[in-house]
Amino acid sequence: MDQDMVVQARVRLLSANRRVVRGAEGLWLYRLLTQVEPETYGSKLAYVLVEASASPLVRELPERRLALLDEAVEVAKALGTSNPYRARMLARALAARQRELEAVWQSSPRPDGGEHRAILRGPDSPETTRALGQRVRRP
Q1: pTM score of the predicted model
Q2: Which of 11, 98, 111, 123 gives the lowest tally of CB atoms within 10 Å of its CB?
Q3: Residues 6+ apart with CB under 8 A from 70
Q4: From the DSSP assignment, how many helices (H) and strands (E) are in the chain?
């Protein structure tokens, strides 16, 4: 690890005067510093990776969004169980990854030419019963 780059990253982080540096600069800073101090910077890296996956820059690149979210999940999993942010960042990264997978799945064409339908409600909800062709039960 190049110590000059680590020092430069720390100086940039301190001069940013923000709690979390976002965007491309944040990705660079936290990726570099997580290699040196994973418990300190890993949760912020996971946070910035999830944010980057929602960026307009990758809107039309589902593979890139999934790669960012996969990295966020791995970074969050690598945090120690005693890290106070581990559970929150892991849940956030997994939820974002699940949403992305569902979006990719729904946008992919079915072999028979039909549409994918996702049931996102509980088993007794009106949406589910209609989707399954059952009569809606009223209380």
Answers
A1: 0.75
A2: 111
A3: 97
A4: 6, 0
